[in-house]
Amino acid sequence: MSNGGANQQWDFRSTGSGWVQLINRNSGRCLDVASGSIADGADIIQYTCGTGGNQRWQWLPTGGYYQLKARHSGGCLTLAADAVDLEQATCATGATTRQWSRA
After folding, report:
1. CA-to-CA distance for 92 and 98, rounded, in angstroms?
2. What does pTM read for this prediction?
3. d(CA 30, CA 33)
4. How far apart are CA 97 and CA 42, in angstroms?
5. In terms of Cα–Cα distance, which of 101, 8, 97 is closest to 46?
6. Distance separating alpha carbons of residues 44 and 48, to the nearest angstrom
């Protein structure tokens, strides 16, 4: 649930060719696929910003929303089954757990 806090706000830093880093306004850390995993179910964490493809994301339009695709794996940011954590999963249009908005 959104409360508008800085811990839920992200800045986008272009890294070129349509890829971005997502940087949390509260922690200053980047959205990261843990350990550079390419597996479905890999944890999404905040980590010190670096140059790895596991911290590079691409916005893919999907009918009013977006999917966020990881550069290193081609997997998408998704809400885990517990509806609390984030994980990586195969990109799929229409999957509401993989739809994101940006303001």
Report:
1. 8
2. 0.92
3. 10
4. 15
5. 8
6. 13
Give the chain's domains with CATH numbers: 9-98 (2.80.10.50)
Chain segment 44-92, per-residue pLDDT in tens: 999 999 999 999 999 999 989 999 999 999 999 999 999 899 999 999 9
Task: Give the largest CA-CA distance in the chain.
Answer: 34
In angstroms, the first-to-last Cα distance of the chain is 16
19 contact partners, CB below 8 Å, separation of at least 6: 56, 57, 58, 71
Q: Which two tokens stand for residue 32?
A: 């990261």
Over residues 3-38, the pLDDT tens digits come to: 788 999 999 999 999 999 999 999 999 999 999 999
Burial of residue 17 (CB within 10 Å: 0-12, 13-18, 19+) is: exposed
* Residue 39 near residue 29 (C-beta atoms within 8 A): no
